[in-house]
Design a protein that fits this description.
Blueprint (H helix, E strand, L loop, with lengths): L1 H15 L1 H16 L7 H26 L3 H23 L6 H11 L4 E5 L2 E4 H16 L10 E4 L4 H12 L4 E3 L6 H11 L3 E5 L3 H13 L3 E5 L9 E2 L1 H6 L18 E7 L7 E6 H7 L1 H4 L8 E4 L6 H14 L2 E4 L8 H8 L3 E5 H8 L14 E5 L3 H11 L3 E6 L8 E2 L9 E2 L2 H6 L2 E4 L1 E2 L4 E2 L15 E7 L13 H6 L1 E3 L7 E11 L4 E7 L3 E4 L2 E4 H9 L4 E9 L8 E8 L7 H11 L8 E4 L14 H6 L10 E5 L4 E4 L2 H8 L6
Parallel strand pairs: 1-11, 3-4, 3-5, 4-8, 5-6, 6-7, 10-11, 10-12, 12-13, 13-14, 27-28
Antiparallel strand pairs: 1-2, 8-9, 14-15, 16-23, 17-20, 18-19, 20-22, 21-22, 22-23, 24-25, 26-27, 28-29, 29-30
The protein binds 2-acetamido-2-deoxy-beta-D-glucopyranose.
Length: 664
């Protein structure tokens, strides 16, 4: 540093004032020659000031050379402080300030700006405001509904989803965001764990609603379908009531008893075991989530492409709620389409896109086109991109900044890769770690639990080694848990981590921190795997398979397929005594009960399912053996949508899958 300071100092003087530099050099030279001679005051002062200035100017260069990320750390530090200040300021406002209030601020600021663009529709902020008033007024006058009652929303990605959510926010009603792919048992389960008393569904989902109608009717649930008229007893058409309703604003008093701790939305996650769980996102959490886009440099001038499902955190919290903060325009799509993606970006002048790892891979595997770089996208924000896809994406589609982050719907810690390090999910930052104390602890993947030392405490992994990410549960990093599911909530809590009696949130994610303090995602522990961007809970699939007619036991796991992100579902099953394996029946059962991403693609017929000493099903060996008919003696079947059956898996089909000729 001293050397650089002197060097910087000389360089600076030489640049800004060569005569001055020459003069000082001369003075120094004389000084050197008659060391005892007193310095003239003026020279001394100048010298000191110059050294001081030069040191300040030289420090950044030194840091940049020897600590390349320190600037980004400092900037991020600044961002964190800004976010905190803004958050605290909002929390202090009276009346209380929530996400809805931010929407109303945006509407007042630019009522005629486009808020949502969908297919050929354009909706300005004020239209969204009025439309949501109509929905709210129509619902409020519905007998049996009271402002504040929980409502379940069962609809695909369309403007009505957003309008209805705004309407319910105006009524102070928590909203359960149901996954529109789920049916029957799962649908009922999800509906029930929110304790909703009203179901609002889009007209395309009429049949799915009819399937569960008897149970809903029995519970006295109000079932509203977004259609003009519905002839099915028990389901009411809601659209014309909305059309007729007033668009007058709703009195604030309707939501006056909402506090930061009140549930705002329920988002379903297929965490580790069993049926989906409803993560409770309270008002405070939603307010915190407002910053995700804005803190990454998204502004009101940006146009954001939202094509991920609105019932998940990425689409709803990051995309929709994030845009409310920035006041950007949302381009909403029913679903992600790799082939239309860039045409849409060009058509709508999209500047910011969201992704999950699979999305980036799909985009990179589309055929190359001449206009691949012809678009205005400048930022991609999301999680789960692999390093090799990251590089390919940027080299193919141009200079797009990639902001990879890590967060979970219910978790209490998140990271953002603000330094743009390829492959990392974030970086250890002093302030961040103070605010959200997290550590990586040693994990036993075979026993599926953290390793404990002689005192029963967890052991932090050294840098460079993989460990389980756990984050201390505090007031500013709370873990709210799952609705109606204390057991699953408790499973995510980890006690006695560093001290007896402390309490951490177990993310279930294995991470690694490298020498430069970058954090890398390694794996997810336990009984979940990801396929097509969705979490598949193996126990849920297993439960469904074993209620089929002929199957006795089912051990579900994910296997890797070349050229595909994540793992595809496979089931090792045993058949009931005196029953036969019936591919058609199992196919029908699976299609009825499971969304397509969760259906086991391969079935391996076994005489017995191996279990561990603690009756956990053994998966490691099965995963390893995968679905290779050359290696496995047991009969193998593959799900065949054309035949509508599970058909025997031949060596030929196997090699076509491995060579990429059959896409799964
Ligand atoms: C996109 O930008 C171009 C040029 O800036 C402009 O002419 C066009 O109208 C814009 N399209 C949309 C849909 O805003």
């Amino acid at each position: 540093a001293l050397f650089s300071a002197c060097f910087g100092f000389s360089l600076l003087l030489a640049i800004i004032s060569p005569p001055l530099w020459a003069n000082i050099f001369h003075e120094l030279h004389i000084l050197w020659r008659k060391r005892s001679a007193p310095l003239r005051d003026i020279t001394m002062e100048m010298l000191l000031i110059s050294i001081f200035l030069a040191t300040i100017l030289a420090v950044p260069f030194v840091l940049r050379t020897f600590f390349p990320y320190v600037w980004m750390d400092v900037l991020y530090f600044g961002d964190l402080v800004r976010i905190l200040v803004r958050f605290v300021e909002r929390r202090r406002r009276r009346p209380l300030f929530f996400v809805l209030d931010r929407f109303l601020e945006q509407t007042a600021a630019h009522p005629d700006k486009n808020f949502i663009v969908f297919e050929n529709e354009r909706h300005t902020f004020s239209e969204a405001d009025r439309r949501s008033n109509q929905i709210a007024n129509a619902l409020q006058s519905h007998p049996g509904y009271e402002a504040g009652d929980t409502v379940a929303l069962f609809t695909g990605n369309e403007p009505a989803f957003m309008f209805t959510w705004l309407a319910l926010a105006k009524l102070g009603s928590p909203v359960a965001l149901l996954n529109h792919n789920i049916r029957t048992k799962s649908l009922l389960h999800c509906f029930n764990c929110s304790k909703a008393t009203v179901l609002i569904a889009s007209s395309e989902l009429k049949e799915a609603v009819e399937d569960v109608l008897p149970s809903l009717t029995e519970q006295g649930v109000i079932v509203l379908l977004m259609t003009k008229h519905c002839d099915k007893p028990g389901i009411e058409g809601f659209s014309d009531k909305v059309e007729e309703a007033s668009d007058a604003p709703l009195p604030r008093s309707l939501r006056s008893n909402i506090t930061p701790k009140s549930p705002a939305v329920y988002i379903y996650t297929s965490g580790t075991t069993g049926l989906p769980k409803a993560a409770v996102i309270n008002q405070n959490r939603l307010l915190t989530a407002l910053v995700v886009l804005s803190s990454n440099g998204v502004t009101s001038k940006d146009v954001i492409f939202v094509n991920l499902p609105l019932y998940h955190t990425a689409g709803f919290v990051i995309g929709f709620i994030g845009s409310i903060e920035t006041g950007s325009t949302i381009i909403l799509k029913r679903k992600f389409s790799a082939s239309q993606f860039w045409d849409d970006c060009r058509k709508y002048n999209v500047t910011v896109v969201q992704y999950i790892g699979e999305v980036m891979r799909y985009l990179c595997s589309t055929p190359k086109r001449d206009n691949d770089k012809d678009h205005k996208v400048r930022l991609a924000i999301g999680n789960g991109i692999r390093a090799e896809i990251w590089r390919e994406f940027v080299s193919r589609f141009g200079n797009i900044q990639i902001r990879e982050f890590y967060a979970s719907t219910e978790g209490n810690v998140g990271f953002i890769n603000y330094a743009g390090k390829v492959g990392a999910i974030g970086r250890v930052n002093f302030l961040h770690r103070k605010l959200f104390p997290y550590i990586l602890v040693k994990y036993d993947t075979e026993r599926d639990e953290p390793i404990r030392d002689a005192d029963g405490l967890c052991v932090e992994v050294p840098k460079g080694e993989t460990g389980l990410l756990v984050s201390k549960i505090t007031d500013i990093a709370p873990f709210v848990g799952y609705a109606q599911n204390e057991e699953q909530t408790e499973r995510k809590r980890l006690r006695n981590v560093l001290k007896k009696g402390d309490l951490y949130f177990n993310t279930g994610d294995l991470m690694r921190i490298d020498d430069e303090n970058f954090i890398y995602f390694q794996d997810r522990v336990g009984d979940t795997f990801r396929w097509k961007g969705e979490n598949v809970a193996t126990t849920e699939v297993s439960d469904i398979l074993t209620i089929s007619e002929c199957l006795k036991e089912a051990n579900i796991y994910g296997v890797q397929v070349p050229g595909h992100e994540g793992r595809i579902g496979m089931a090792a099953v045993t058949v009931k005594r005196e029953a036969q394996f019936d591919g058609k029946k199992i196919y029908n059962h699976v299609v009825n009960y499971l969304p397509s991403y969760a259906r086991p693609r391969f079935i391996r017929l076994q005489n017995a399912v191996e279990v561990t000493g603690t009756f956990k099903q053994m998966k490691v060996k099965l995963v390893e053996e995968s679905f290779d008919p050359g290696r496995i003696q047991d009969p193998l079947y593959i799900l065949d949508d054309k035949e509508k059956s599970y058909v025997p898996l031949t060596a030929q089909v196997y090699s076509s899958i491995m060579s990429g000729n059959i896409k799964l």
